[in-house]
Amino acid sequence: MLIPACDQFFIYGTLLPGQCRWYLLERAKVRLLGPATTMGWLLDLGEYPGLVSEEWFDLSRNPKPDRSDAPTVFGQVVIVPDFEVACRALDTEEGCRLADRGFDSVGQPLRAPVELGVGLYVRRLQQIILSDGQKSWAWTYVYNQAVRSPLWIESGNWLLARR
What we know:
This protein is of the alpha+beta class. 18% of the residues lie in helices and 32% in strands. The protein has one domain (8-162): Hypothetical upf0131 protein ytfp (Roll), CATH 3.10.490. It has helices at 22-27, 54-60, 83-93, 158-162; strands spanning 8-11, 31-39, 41-44, 49-52, 72-79, 96-99, 121-130, 135-143. The chain is globular, with a radius of gyration of 15 Å. The mean pLDDT is 91.
């Protein structure tokens, strides 16, 4: 049994309010829920960041950055009312060619098989922690390219790193 996917997006870079791609979410008439975090590492790719997960290290064969604390990425959560329309625009803009398929009968994400380099990003269902401490699922874009010498945003916060 397939459980439909959620209508929440975790955004952490150029899709954030006030950033260059926020207009895509404004057009989709999203509702901003507020701050959230997710597990992962944040690559500094110059004009934009890239969230990577454990899977990226396995595929890219890059070593994880030396950090004593849990890898955390800071962002915002939005509710997307017309998910299909929004995803078409966002997937095109983000160079996304692969996406998870929703949830299985026990509420776990049905993962799309990923091949590094197929699309700039993959749209993944990622567990997030809302500012009130509640855990939830949200879509997010996970970076899907090899990087020879990764530069990391140690704070996990792209806006803070841009100052």
